[in-house]
Design goal:
158 residues; alpha+beta; 4-stranded mixed β-sheet
Length: 158
């Protein structure tokens, strides 16, 4: 059920981004990894607060990304962005997902993110996910969000 719920959130993110573009609304999902009361209970020492140095599991990292996604600086819509990483690197890595896979991971060298740094770091990452889908005549190219959605947002924000 947990996995199905996450899949639904990702699917709703794309759907709502397409539907709400005409109103100038950007819709993105946040895929966080951070310390919570539950994670501390389940993972114990792995999730404990770090007394000194960079705290990879601090919820502050997720809050900063949420602030960016809600700001006018965010140029994405219909995307899933996370404060996650691989091989133990979490709080200083941002992940831009492409469908169900990782598209890009960018790090910040064990430094806390701020909105301006996130904006600069994500500036060169693609606005659209590219893939394929089953169509009536076989396999078709799929770009999400479509060009017309981005054009609509650009016109409204103009």
């Amino acid at each position: 059920m947990y996995v199905a719920a996450k899949a639904r959130i990702a699917a709703l993110t794309v759907s709502w981004a397409l539907e709400l573009a005409e109103l100038g609304v950007r819709v993105n999902a946040l895929a966080p990894v951070a310390r919570t009361r539950i994670s501390e209970f389940v993972a114990g020492p792995l999730m404990s607060t770090i007394p000194e140095g960079f705290d990879r599991m601090s919820p502050d990292h997720v809050a900063t990304l949420a602030t960016y996604l809600a700001s006018p600086a965010c140029r994405f819509t219909g995307r899933v962005v996370g404060v996650v990483g691989v091989v133990g690197v979490v709080g200083d890595s941002l992940t831009l997902f492409e469908g169900w896979t990782i598209g890009s991971i960018v790090g910040n060298g064990e430094q806390a993110w701020d909105v301006d740094t996130i904006e600069r770091t994500l500036a060169d990452l693609p606005l659209q996910q590219r893939g394929t889908m089953q169509g009536l005549a076989g396999v078709d190219d799929l770009t999400t969000p479509p060009d017309d959605v981005l054009a609509t947002l650009a016109t409204i924000e103009g």
